[in-house]
Design a protein that fits this description.
Blueprint (H helix, E strand, L loop, with lengths): L3 H10 L10 H7 L3 H12 L7 E11 L2 E13 L2 E7 L1 H5 L4 H4 L14 E7 L5 E4 L6 E4 L6 E5 L3 H15 L15 H5 L10 E4 L5 E4 L2 H14 L11 E12 L8 E11 L2 E7 L19 E8 L3 E6 L8 E5 L7 H9 L3
Parallel strand pairs: 5-9
Antiparallel strand pairs: 1-2, 1-7, 2-3, 3-4, 5-6, 6-7, 8-9, 10-11, 11-12, 12-13, 14-15
Helix pairs in contact: 1-3
Length: about 350
C-alpha cells in the first residue's frame, strides 16, 4: 500500500468539475497527485494510523440539517470512514450550523491561511445507503440527523463506482454476525401482505448495512405527479417519462463586472409531450427511522413546465462535458387558445 494502480486511479479522479466553483483550499487538494495525495490524507485527514485510502470522488453534497445548501466536497473513502472535505465558507453560510459543526475559527483570519473543515462518517456508524433514481445520487445514513449526507454525483458511473468501493471496504469490517435468516420466498421477502405493494428493493450487505434501490413504483408515482401538471391528459398509460436527470438551471447575474452565472440545481423530466423542471428534495426522502414528523416540503415541486410543441429551437454549446443546452420556446400568452375557441364554437 499504496499500489501503483491506486495512485494512478486517485490521481485521475482528483479533478474538480469545471462548472462548479470551489475555494482556494479545495483547489489545493485538487492539485495534489500520486504519493502527495496519499501523504496529505495520512497527515491531515486520517484518524488512525493503519487505515488505507481506497477511493476519491468530487461531488456536490447536501446535509440533512441544511437541506437547501448544496456544497462541493472532496469525498475520500478509507478502510475506516468516509471523509467529506469542505471549504470553510460552508460553516459560515448558515447560522443554524453553529451547533452542528461546533467550530471556532476566529484565530484563522490570516488571508494566507486557507482552512477546510472535514465531516467524518465512520463506517461502523453506517446504517443504510439509499440510491436515487437512475443512479443520479445516493444518500448515506448514520444513526442520527447529523449523520445523513446525500452525494449529488449527477453521474451514474460515479455513483456505481463509489457504491462498489464502499461494499468492498465494508466487507473488511469485523462486525458480529447477524442471526441466520429464515428462508423466505420472493413474495414474503419483498411484498407486504397487508397492502400487496412491492417495497423498495433492499440488499443487506454482510456488514449489516442496507443498500436500498428504488423500484418501479417510484417512477409510477413520479409519472402520476407529472400527469397532474399536464392539462388535458386523461390517459396515464400513455404517459412515458423518457428522461430523468439532475441538472443545473443557468441564471445569468445582471450587472456583474464579469460574465458570471449562478447554477440552480433542478431535476429535469422529459415526457413525450412536455419538458419539466422540478425542485427535488434529495435528502429527506425516504424518511429516516428517527424522523418524528414529515419534511416541510414535498419531494417534488414544479418549477417550470413547457410543451414540446412550443419548442422553437435548441442551442447547444461547444464546450466539453457537461454540455450546456438552451431551450427557446415560443412565447404564447394563451397556449390553449385554439382549443378553447374550437370548444366554444362547435358546442360541447
Amino acid at each position: 500500500y499504496p499500489s501503483e494502480f491506486l495512485l494512478q486511479k486517485i490521481t485521475e479522479d482528483n479533478q474538480i468539475p469545471v462548472h462548479l466553483h470551489v475555494s482556494v483550499s479545495l483547489q489545493y487538494v485538487a492539485g495534489l497527485k500520486g504519493y502527495a495525495l496519499v501523504e496529505f490524507f495520512h497527515g491531515n485527514i486520517a484518524e488512525v494510523e493503519n487505515e488505507e485510502l481506497r477511493h476519491l470522488m468530487w461531488s456536490s453534497v447536501l446535509f440533512y440539517k441544511t437541506p437547501n445548501l448544496e456544497v462541493m466536497a472532496c469525498v475520500l473513502l478509507s478502510t475506516k470512514a468516509i471523509y467529506f472535505v469542505l471549504d470553510d465558507s460552508f460553516i459560515h453560510a448558515d447560522e443554524h450550523q453553529s451547533d452542528f459543526w461546533n467550530q471556532d475559527n476566529s484565530d484563522c483570519d490570516n488571508s494566507s491561511f486557507h482552512l477546510s473543515c472535514c465531516f467524518v462518517l465512520k463506517l461502523n456508524d453506517l446504517q443504510s445507503v439509499n440510491v436515487g433514481l437512475f443512479d443520479q445520487y445516493f444518500r448515506i445514513t448514520g444513526h442520527s440527523a447529523n449523520h445523513i449526507v446525500t452525494c449529488l454525483t449527477r453521474d451514474s458511473y460515479n455513483t456505481h463506482t463509489f457504491i462498489q468501493q464502499l461494499m468492498a471496504v465494508l466487507s473488511l469490517l469485523a462486525r458480529t454476525p447477524s442471526p441466520e435468516p429464515v428462508d423466505k420466498d420472493f413474495y414474503s421477502e419483498f411484498g407486504s401482505k397487508t397492502t400487496g405493494k412491492m417495497e423498495n428493493y433492499e440488499l443487506i450487505h454482510s456488514s449489516r448495512v442496507k443498500f436500498i434501490y428504488p423500484n418501479e413504483e417510484e417512477i409510477g408515482d413520479l409519472a402520476f405527479l407529472v400527469a397532474e401538471r399536464m392539462h388535458g391528459l386523461t390517459n396515464l398509460q400513455s404517459l412515458n417519462i423518457l428522461l430523468y436527470a439532475l441538472a443545473f438551471q443557468v441564471n445569468h447575474v445582471e450587472g456583474s463586472t464579469q460574465n458570471t452565472s449562478s447554477l440552480q440545481p433542478k431535476t429535469l423530466i422529459l415526457t413525450s409531450s412536455d419538458l419539466f423542471l422540478f425542485d427535488e428534495d434529495y435528502i429527506s426522502y425516504p424518511l429516516p427511522e428517527f424522523a418524528k414528523e414529515p419534511p416541510k416540503r414535498d419531494k417534488y415541486q414544479l418549477a417550470d413546465g413547457r410543451r414540446i410543441r412550443d419548442l422553437d429551437r435548441v442551442l447547444m454549446g461547444y464546450q466539453t462535458y457537461p454540455q450546456a443546452l438552451t431551450f427557446v420556446f415560443d412565447d404564447v400568452q394563451n397556449q390553449d387558445l385554439m382549443q378553447n375557441l374550437t370548444l366554444d364554437h362547435f358546442g360541447e
